[in-house]
Specification:
alpha+beta, BirA Bifunctional Protein, domain 2, seven-stranded mixed sheet, 10 strands, binds 3,4-dihydroxyphenylalanine
Length: about 350
């Protein structure tokens, strides 16, 4: 071969090889072209071999230079294109598995249920007033749930609580008041100052009543506990739960286990007790939350009936006490304006997220 021939081959083949390498779309195609043009039997190898057979040193030099240049160009073209194909492959794999432009999905964070929040707040206030936690069973003896609370069998007051009976002697507790008796019997010595939070059950359901709901019960028995102590405790309680401007009003009532008994009213926090205006304004300008009375009923309370102290193993001639029971759902509904008690138990995140 002559120098001119080598030059010719290079000219023709380099362009061909460049376009073949550039046209490869997969690593396999590229490798195929590489072997074809740059491999053992490719033109470049042939050209290299031919260089040694040239007649003059000058020709060898010149041809060698041309061959090396061609070699370098082709190898660079090969490397660049290989890089490109690999990058495209990575892209394609990524696009197949991940769409990196999608917004991230946050993991859900749990939090306390609104009823738990409400109960915790109530228990915190009572705890700061020296009430310690007490507990009792949800499946309760008739004796604790009724009899020891001054409601013997056939007592008409039992009708007020639509009771689920397990059998003649065992009920689902209808209130947390049986824990009063349990606490008196267990602690035995005054001062007895306990708060009990828990589930209670009644056969009753509508938008403000659920067959299972929650109460917090408070009991304070000591040598000199007075009705004034009850009122003061309730006043502090409503201020801390419903705001500093809240007031309590006590209305005469009846519970078999307290004497005297009261219904505890809270000054309406929506209209400020005026009965008109406020956030819960009706079309007629009257407050809907308190039905324009300025007061909202929130719990039952009273001085522990001497008979109940006796059932609790305490001496009613030496000791007095007060007690109160509050519905947790009712407080939560008032506080946040929840219109339907069932929302608390449906576990719908759209509802629960709001607290
Ligand atoms: N146990 C009563 C109920 O569920 C509420 C109650 C009223 C509790 C007066 C008390 C109390 O401790 O003194 O209806």
């Amino acid at each position: 071969m002559t120098l001119a021939e080598i030059e010719q081959i290079l000219q023709r083949s380099v362009d061909q090889a460049l376009s073949a390498l550039g046209a490869a779309t997969t690593a396999d195609e590229l490798e195929h072209s590489r072997v074809h043009y740059l491999g053992q039997k490719g033109f470049l190898t042939q050209a290299k071999k031919s260089v040694g057979q040239l007649a003059t040193v000058d020709d060898k030099k010149q041809a060698g230079k041309l061959v090396n240049e061609a070699d370098a160009r082709l190898r660079k073209a090969y490397d660049d294109h290989k890089e490109r194909i690999e990058a495209a492959l990575r892209e394609a794999e990524l696009a197949e598995r991940w769409d990196v432009t999608l917004p991230g999905r946050r993991s859900l964070r749990g939090k306390r249920h609104p009823l738990t929040m409400t109960a915790d707040d109530i228990l915190d206030v009572l705890g700061s007033l020296g009430f310690m936690r007490a507990e009792g069973p949800e499946i309760e003896h008739d004796w604790y749930n009724f009899e020891a609370l001054n409601m013997p069998r056939e007592h008409p007051a039992r009708d007020m609580q639509d009771t689920f009976y397990i059998d003649d002697d065992v009920v689902l507790r209808t209130h947390t008041s049986p824990v009063q008796v349990r606490a008196m019997l267990a602690l035995a010595r005054p001062p007895i100052r306990v708060a009990c939070y828990g589930r209670v059950y009644r056969n009753d359901h509508d938008i403000t009543h659920s067959p299972m709901f929650h109460q917090v019960e408070g009991l304070y028995v000591d040598e000199t506990v007075t009705f004034g102590d009850l009122k003061g405790t309730l006043q502090v309680f409503v201020e801390r739960i419903f705001g500093a401007r809240s007031k309590v009003r006590l209305r005469p009532s009846f519970f078999p286990f307290t004497e005297p008994s009261v219904e505890v009213d809270l000054s309406c926090f929506s209209c400020g007790g005026s009965g008109s205006g406020g956030a819960a304004l009706g079309d007629d300008g009257r407050c809907r939350l308190c039905k324009a009375t300025g007061w909202i009923e929130i719990m039952g309370a009273g001085m522990v009936d001497p008979e109940v102290l006796r059932f609790g193993g305490l001496d009613p001639d030496k000791l007095t006490g007060f007690a109160f029971g509050i519905g947790v759902e009712r407080v939560a509904m008032l506080r946040w304006g929840v219109p339907d008690i069932r929302l608390f138990f449906e576990n719908d995140r759209r509802f629960l997220q709001q607290f």
